[in-house]
Amino acid sequence: MAAPKRFFAQNISEEMTLSEEEGRHAKNVLRLAEGDEVTLFDGSGKEYSAVVTRADRQGITVHVVRENVSDREPKTWVFLLIGALKGDKTELVVQKATELGVSRIGVFSSRYCSAYMNENKLERLNRVAREAAKQCLRASVPRVEYYETLEEALRAGSECVTRLFACEFLDETEKDLIDTGATVCAVVGSEGGFAEEEYALAQRLGYCGVSLGKRILRAETAAIALLSVVMHEAGELG
Ligand code: SAH
Fold first, then answer.
1. Best of 80, 172, 216 to mutate for ligand 1, by most ligand atoms within 8 A of CB?
2. Which of 13, 149, 158, 195 stands 20 to 30 A from 2 (CA)?
3. Ligand 1 within 6 A of CB of 186
4. At 72, phi and psi to the nearest 5?
5. How confident is the model over 155-179, as pLDDT tens digits?
6. 43 — phi, psi (to 5°)?
7. Whole-prediction pTM value?
């Protein structure tokens, strides 16, 4: 039997109606009917098994039967900081980072960054994270926040045990990436890259420079590559 379909819901209670958007999808696309089993998640890491008690024009009502603990969350807590990218590139990074198991995402503006951010875009990014979590069976949804400056972003990651700053003009990585510790902050610049003084600032704040090899990668490739290395070292891939 196929796994129960997953739905995002806020304020999960024993008897509840799915949001209009999730309800519409459940009814019109997935054709859910009374008696079908579903999984609900609220992004906090908990999941709930529920049964559809009503599926009609008023929406989908469910009865929650039990709470489950998700075993899909990485043991290493990873915070991605990414420069705001042009077009829908930031969305792509949020989607891939969520799939790779990142716990929190910060988008920042920096000296050579030409993309801008607003409330709508931020809301859209959080929605992309929710959809990605749903699709890859995660019960936690990484929150996406915006920082107006690189310094603000770097300070937000300063509590992390390991702080990595992917820098395109470095020939070598300053520190062995193996044994990343329980919390990792990984920083990747926007299309415009970083300025020398931005790297100096990161160093002052305890970040170590990381080289991703001899080729200059696009920002989105760099983010996915760095996160893959971190997750691999943390034993989360395979
Ligand atoms: N415009 C820059 C490239 C920016 S690449 C230039 O022409 O040089 C965007 C971001 O991806 C960089 O800021 C860095 O964080 C990351 N990146 C790309 N290639 C990298 C590499 N070889 N090593 C480390 N970081 C890299």
1. 216
2. 13
3. no
4. -100, 0
5. 999 999 999 999 999 999 887 766 7
6. 90, -5
7. 0.92
